[in-house]
Amino acid sequence: MSAIQPDESLARRMHGLQPGEQPLARSNPNLPGTSDDGTLSEDPGKRAPCVLGDRSLEDVTNIVCGYAEAKMPKPWLAALTISSSIAALGTGMILYLIITGVGVWGLNNQVDWAWDITNFVFWIGIGHAGTLISAILCLLKQNWRTAVNRSAEAMTIFAVICAGIFPGIHVGRVWFAWFLAPIPNSNGIWPNFRSPLLWDVFAVSTYATVSLLFWYMGMIPDVATLRDRAYMRLSKGVSRPMAIPMPIGNDIIVPQLPKPDQIRVLIYGIMALGWRFSSRHWHRYEKAYLILAGISTPLVLSVHSIVSFDFATSIIPGWHTTIFPPYFVAGAVFGGFAMVLWLMIPLRLILPNFSDLLTLRHLENMAKILLLTGTMVGFAYGMEFFIAWYGANEFEFAAFADNRVNPAKAPYWWAYWTMIFCNVVTPQLFWFRKMRQNPLVIWIVASFVTVGMWFERFVIIVTSLHRAFLPGEWHMFFPTWVDILTFVGSCGIFMTLFLLFLKFLPIFALAELKVVMPQSHTHDDH
Amino acid sequence: MPSMNPKDLISFAADYFPMVFKKPAPKYVSESGNRIYGMVAEFHETPKVYQAAEIVRDAGYSKWDVHTPFPIHDIETAMGMKTTKLPMMAGGAAVIGVTIGILLQWVTTAHLYPTVVQGKPFGAWEPFVPIIFELGVLLTAFMCIFGMLALNGLPRFHHPLFSYERFYKVSDNRFIICIESIDPKFDPTATRALLEKAGGSEIALIEDED
Question: How far apart are the CA of B88 and the nearest CA of chain A, in angstroms?
Answer without folding.
Answer: 11
